[in-house]
Amino acid sequence: MRKIKFIAVKEFYHILRDPKSLAIAIAMPIIMTLLYGYAINLDIKNINIAIVDYDKTIESTELIDAFYASPYFSRPENPVSLSDPQAAMRSDDVTAVLYIRPGFAEKLRNGQTYELGMTVDGSDNNLGAAVMNYSKALVNTFILEHLPVGVEVPQVRLAIQNLYNPDLESSHFFVPGLVAIILMMISALLTSITIAREKETGTMEQLLTAPVTPWQILTGKIIPYIGLALLDAVLVLVAARLLFNVPFVGSQILLLGFALIYVATALSLGVLVSAMVKTQQVAMMLAMMLTMLPAVMLSGFIFAVKNMPVVLQLLSNVIPAKFFVTIIRGIALKGAGLDVLAMQGLYLIILMTVLMLIAGKKFTRRIA
Amino acid sequence: MSRALIGVVKKEFIQILRDRNMIRIIFLMPVIQLLLFGYVVNIDVKNLSLDVYDFDRTHESRELVRSVGASGYFTPNDTIMALQHLEDNFKRSSSDMAIVIPPGFAHDLMNRENPSVSLITDGSNANQTAIGIGYMGRLMQIFISAYYGVSIPLDLRFDVLYNPEAESVYFMVPGIVATLLTMVTVMLTSMAIVRERELGTLEQLMVTPIKGRELLLGKLIPFAILGFLETIIALTFGVLWFQVPFVGSSVLLFALAGLYLVTPLGIGLFFSNVTSTQQQAMFFAWFFSVFAILTSGFFTPISNMPTWMQYLTYLNPMRYFIEITRAIMMKGAGLQDLVFQVVMLAIYGVAVFGLSAMRFSKRVS
């Protein structure tokens, strides 16, 4: 125990001695919360679409108004050239062009079949899909309000109740997940270069000649960073609360407890990386590759795990962020308790143990 | 090229490639990025788990549930449960929505009395919920139109350009190319020069008869080559594995990539000037990468961001390069379509690189 403490204290001084890095390690998570929180917005709104109206009737004008009155669509700044509407799509000025051919109002009044046409820029397929979905819904509402006289369609009344996030604020869903991502990246990066640095600058030999076991070195190296990472966790949570008004319904103590397990897991991943490589450069690249993308992509943070191919769904089970994303959303938004989330915590502990075991093995072998 | 310059380039290459792990990372990074982006990026909302509480238990109510399930948007789960367990499934995230069909549904339907149905959602995933509610409204309309045999005479036909198969990987690959080129050059450049300073070998280099200019170029050329290598790997893998179409001119793409590269190299150089340890350089480079990726429109459209952030994106050189790669690869754009982007990149290149290079030479001498 005393030896672990010595290494921890040494590492602690090392952190303090480099105030630039320390400042970045503290400021970075907050800036990242800001950047990510505002930059990634999946509510697709204000898409520029052009409408070419050859019908020029009251009905066609009403349809145009219906499109531009919706929050999803807006008028392009510059009028689109009628001879080549697609030019505006190539230069990214509009995402879609709606054509209302002549005869629209007449057929609508007589209840005859009529087809509206829309050209969509599909290069961003998600944006394209959103345009198509919103347009379909708008046209659907429009026709129900403009049914020919005498035609009546009964409707199913849908009573809707949204639990946990009644105003459907996407940031309430998104920002808690963000906490998981940022903590993963910062923690893994923090520890990934600690051992590599000792190897590169030649101080590892000195450490090894001291009467400490590899395990004591690894544990001692992690402890000071747990404090730093937990501080980051608190800062990010406060930022989420103040900047994005994310409600924290559940127990904050429970959340911090889980956060502790989670950062310890992420730090273990960093230590494993550090034990595997020789230079800080490689350590950093590997830590980035292992954390940034998988944590963002496979954790369910943006993309639902159940929509992925089966292989990736299986793979997602070794991504610590996946479990913490579920935990933090459960606690913050739904007030879930330990009874519902115990399994997730257990998974994290198992992952951490496995990571530390491998790191210890790699490290011992390197020394021998 | 002078012999001294060739010497520095060689030394730098040996130093990078000496580490087996580095070689693995260089080859694996583009492949892993492509695989993840190719298979994961999918914000289509489908297969929402829908708990069904059917208190009507008639042919009509079952037919409603069946038609909702047949749409592919919902996966109904109609094992009978008591209503009080409704929230448990939300808390466990094992269900996304619950539909409650009250007794009398079929009766109202037969009497044309606008039957009502309750939809209770786990609203925490706001985006998915809003889309799911939209689907449900349309499905109800389709169900009831079919029930009464009424057809809706208005239809909307779509004509999708550039990516009609709606493959997200087609859209992602140009972005990945730009991301890799930026990340690799900024990070490796910034760390490589600081490394010499941290280990004290920069002084050794300075006493050799290498000129400051040669040292600078010798440090940068290997990373420019590595950046191009990453681009080629990503493009080749994308075209061969995912059959990503490449409509425009590859010569133009590589020429503009060369123009773009000057800026991230300059930024890497700048970071190496203002930091003294590899850890600091790494943090700076990492922060820049996150900023560059997030404000480039790589993940989400720039038009979706708050206005202040939209202005911020103009400061990001990667923004222009992503627009270039996407326009060339997907829309077959030529130089005449990309004048603005090219001019911006040229301005950035000259300004950023010029300033950092000046600072570097001053520090060296």
List keywords for this structure.
heterodimer, A: 368 residues, alpha/beta, 14 helices, 67% helix, B: 365 residues, abc type-2 transporter like fold, 2 domains, 5 strands
What's the short story on this structure?
Chain A is α/β, with parallel strands linked by helices and 368 residues long.
Task: Give a written overview of the molecule.
The complex is a heterodimer of chains A (368) and B (365). By secondary structure, chain A is α/β, with parallel strands linked by helices. Chain A contains 14 helices and five strands. Chain A has a four-stranded mixed beta sheet. In chain A, helix 3 (58-69) links the parallel strand 1 (47-53) and strand 2. In chain A, helix 1 crosses helix 9, helix 2 crosses helix 9 and helix 10 (252-276) packs across helix 11 (280-298). Chain A starts with a helix and ends with a helix. With 365 residues, chain B is of the alpha/beta class. Chain B is 66% helix and 8% strand. In chain B, helix 2 crosses helix 9, helix 7 (168-199) runs parallel beside helix 10 (250-274) and helix 10 packs antiparallel against helix 13. Chains A and B meet through helix 2, helix 4, strand 4, helix 6 and strand 5 of A and helix 2, helix 4, strand 4, helix 6 and strand 5 of B. Strand 4 (114-121) of chain A pairs parallel with strand 5 (154-161) of chain B.
Secondary-structure element string of chain A: HHEHEHEHEHEHHHHHHHH
Number of distinct beta strands of chain A: 5
The description of the largest β-sheet of chain A is: 4 strands, mixed
Number of DSSP helical runs of chain A: 14
Oligomer: heterodimer
Task: Give the total of domains of chain B.
Answer: 2
Q: Please state roughly what percent of the residues of chain A sit in beta strands, choosing from under 5%, 5-15%, 15-25%, 25-35%, 35-45% or over 45%.
A: 5-15%
**Cα end-to-end separation of chain A:** 23 Å
